[in-house]
Amino acid sequence: MSFTDPTVVLPALLAAIAGAIYFYYFSPQANQPDIHPLQLAQQSSVSRTRGSSNESAVYRSKIAPEGSSLLAAPSREVKTLRDAIRLGRAASKNAAALVQTAVDDTKIIKSSSEDVASRTLALASGFRRIVSAADNAPVSAILYMHSSTELLLAYQACIEAGIVAIPISAQEPVDVVEKIVKHSCSPLIVTSSALAMGLGTRVAGSSLKHAVLLGDLDGSDESVAFGKVAKVVSMEELEKGPALERDDHSPSIEPSDPAYVLYTTADNDGSAPPRGVVITHSNALSALAGLTTALPATQALSSKDKFMSVASLANPANLNFINLALFHGCPIFICETADSEKFSNFSYQFQPTFTYLEPLLLRDLVQLFYSHIIKYPKLEYKIFMSGYRRALDSLMRGMVPKASFFDFSYFRHYRNVMGGKLRLMYVNGQTTSSKDIEWLRILHGAKVIPLFGSVETCSAVTAGAYFDYASAIETHNVGAPLACCELKVIDCQKPVCLTSEDKPYPRGRILVRGPSVASGLWNERNKSVELSDGWLELPYFGEIMPNGTLNVIGITATIVKSDLSPSGDFFVERLERLLISSRAITDICVVTPDSSAKQITIVAHPRPMELFAEANKSKRSYKMQEIDSYPWCAEYIRDKLIDVAAASDEFSWVAQMPKQDVKVKLVSLPFSTKNNLAFSDGTNNRVAAKRLVALGTN
C-alpha cells in the first residue's frame, strides 16, 4: 500500500482536518483563561489598619484604593442627573436610539430619539406650568403608571424640569399607593385613567391638586370622585404645548438636590407606615459611576448597546440601569413582566445587549428552559448534560466556553431565543440562587453579574467582577465594593453572635459608606437615614471572602432561634439557598419554626418534569394541579432535599433529623405575588407560607 494511494491520503487528510476543527473549535479545554487568575485573587483594596478591634478592615474597589476619592460622578462634565441624560440624548441622535414599548403579546410601539427628546421637553414645560404656583419646595410629582414609553418620558421630564420624581409600581396594592400619595404631599400625579379611577376617593384629603392622565376618564362614579380631588389634564394636551428651552428657562439644579424618592415599607407587606428615601442627584450619579467603572474598558457600554427594562421604575436597581442607558444614549425596550415566555418573546425581537432581571422572572426563565431540556430523549439529555458539565468546568477555570460542539448543538439555540446579543445580565445576587446563576451563564453565554445593595444605597454596593465566572456559584458571593462606596463588617452579639475574628472569614453586620449612600427621608421632619461617621448600618449580615468579595449571610428578619440547630440559631434564607440548589424544586420557603419546635416544615414548588420523570420510573401517577393530594410526591421531594442537606457542613443537622420531622408541603404553582407566596422583590412571604401550612390547603 503506497502513501500516495488516494484511499490512504484522503482518510488521513480528513482525519487531520477533523482533528484541527475539534481542537480549535470544539474543545473548550483548548482555550486559555479570559483573565490572569492573579487579577481575581484579590478583588478589593483593603485598608492597612482597622478602626477598632470589633470591626473588620475597610474594603474598597481596586479602582478607588485607600487614599483616593470615591467616585461621585461618571465624568467631569456631569454634575447632575439632568446633565447625564442630556449627554445621552446628544449621543443617541448620532446612534438613532429609540424607545420601544410592549403593549401586549404581539404589538410593539417604537419612538425615535428625536420624538423622545421633543416629547420630554414638552412634558417638562407642561409640568413646570402646572406646579409653578405650588407652595411646597422642592416640588415633587408621583409617577404611578404601568411601564411604558410615557412613564419613561414623564421620568425624564421630571429630571429636566427639576421636579422630584416619586415612582410607584402599578403592581402595588391600592392601600399602599394611598398611603404613599398622602405621605408624599405631592401636588401632581402622573398616571393612567384606569389607575386614577382605581384610586377614586382614596386620595381625598391628600395634597394632590393636579393630575396628568394617559387616556380618558369614562364618566363613572370613580372617575368623577377622582376629578374632584385633582384638576385633570391629558398628557397628550401637555405635549402640544411649548417645549422647555434648555438654557433660558430650565431651573437650576444642584448636586445635593433630590432627584427622586424611593418608597419602602419596613415589613414589605404594606402594613407599616411608608418611608421615602431621598436620592439626590449626587447619589444617583455616584451609583451610575460605580456601575460604569465596574466594567472593563473593552466592555464599556455605548450607544450601540440596547437595554431591556422588565422591572418597575420604582425598583432601585432597575432605575439605576435606566439611568445608565439614558446616560449612554442606549435604545431602551420597556416590558414590565414576570412571565418568562413574554420576556423571551420580546427579547428575541429587540435583541438587547444588557438587562436587569428580578428574582421572580429569573426563576421562571430558568424553569422555562429546564422544562424544555428535560423533555429530550434519554440519550440526548445525557449528551446535553455532558456538555453542560464541560461548560461549567470551563467557567470554574476562568473562561467562557468558546465555540464547541455543545455550543453549536444546544447552547446557541437558547442564546438565540434571548435575541442572541445579550452580553450583560444583572441579577440580585442576594436573593438569586447559585444554581440559577450557573444555569444562565452556561445556556445564554452572557456575563451574569450579581449585585447587592439597598434602597438607601441606590441598590448599589457591590457587583461581581466581569471576568469572575465562578462568582456566586461556589460561595454565593455578591462581588467586591463598587468604586462609589466602601464597606466593612462589625461585631454583633444580638440577635446572633458574629465577629470580625470568626474563622475562616470575618463576619458581622454590614456597614456602607460613600457618596451613593442616601441620608435624607422625604417629608420626615427632624428625621434622616441614621449614619455614624458617614457609615450606614444595613439590616444584613455578611462575611468577607479571601478574595475581598462579600458573601451576604442573611438579613435580620430571617434569623431563627431554634433548638434544632446545634448553634441555637440559623439564618433561614441561608438554609433555603442551600436546599434550592436541588434540581427537584424551583421555589422553597422554610416556615420559621418556634424556638422549641422539634420539626421543620418546608413549602416548595417542585419541578414538574422532575416529578414526571420519577412518576414514569416508579410507575406512579399524580396531577400537578392536585399535587398536595399525592403523598409520594412530597416524600420524593423531601428525600431530595435531605440529600442536599446531608452534603452540607452547616446544615447537616437537617439530614440527621427523623424523616417524619422534616415535613414538606408542595404547591402546584411557582411562588409569585399572585398566589401571595412571594413579594415583588423576590423574597418569600413567610407569613402567607405559614398560614398555608396551618390551613392545610393548596
TrEMBL record:
User: What EC number(s) has UniProt assigned to this enzyme?
Assistant: 6.2.1.3
Q: Which superkingdom is the protein from?
A: Eukaryota
Any stretches that span the bilayer, and where are they?
7-26
Q: Which UniProt keywords apply?
A: ATP-binding, Ligase, Membrane, Nucleotide-binding, Transmembrane, Transmembrane helix
**What is one cellular component GO term in this UniProt entry?**
membrane
Drop me one GO molecular function for this one.
Answer: ATP binding
AMP-dependent synthetase/ligase domain mapped to chain residues: 106-522
User: Which Pfam family is one of those matched by this entry?
Assistant: AMP-binding
Q: What's the protein called, per UniProt?
A: Medium-chain fatty acid-CoA ligase faa2
What species is this protein from?
A: Coemansia asiatica
Its lineage opens with: Eukaryota, Fungi, Fungi incertae sedis, Zoopagomycota, Kickxellomycotina
